[in-house]
What we know:
Elements: E1 14-15, H1 16-23, H2 27-36, E2 43-44, E3 50-52, H3 54-69, H4 74-84, H5 93-116, E4 122-123, E5 126-127, H6 132-147
Antiparallel strand pairs: 1-3, 2-3, 4-5
Helix pairs in contact: 5-6
Amino acid sequence: MEKALPSIPAKRYFTIGEVSELCGVKPYVLRYWEQEFTQLKPMKRRGNRRYYQHHEVLLVRRIRDLLYDQGFTISGARNRLSDALPPVAEPDETEATSERAGAAIEPKLSAGLEQHLPGPQEIAGATVALPAAQLRAELLSIRELLSA
């Protein structure tokens, strides 16, 4: 019987150690997979410390499933992922600048956004997605907060 993976906490960034525990693979395996799978590009900060975002943790779990559970080779898993996922573009300078600007105003907005955004609801470890109409309404309210 296979051990179930823990649910992914609601965080913005994860260290390589956290991803290792969440996905059931060793850190050296994650570093190797970065070389083999072009879609897996964690952000690197000071001292080349890796920080993974939520979508990258999901990608690591998908790679793990393809390799360990479904028996794909690295090449086969790479082909399977490239068929299923659009290519990840490298961020350009404009995106980096806007990300820094967003980080500067984020603390100011977090208090206001907390009252407008519902928290993720979990049912048996799976996050329930918002209906499209509700998601649109939430995004519009966020836009109003940002433009104010």
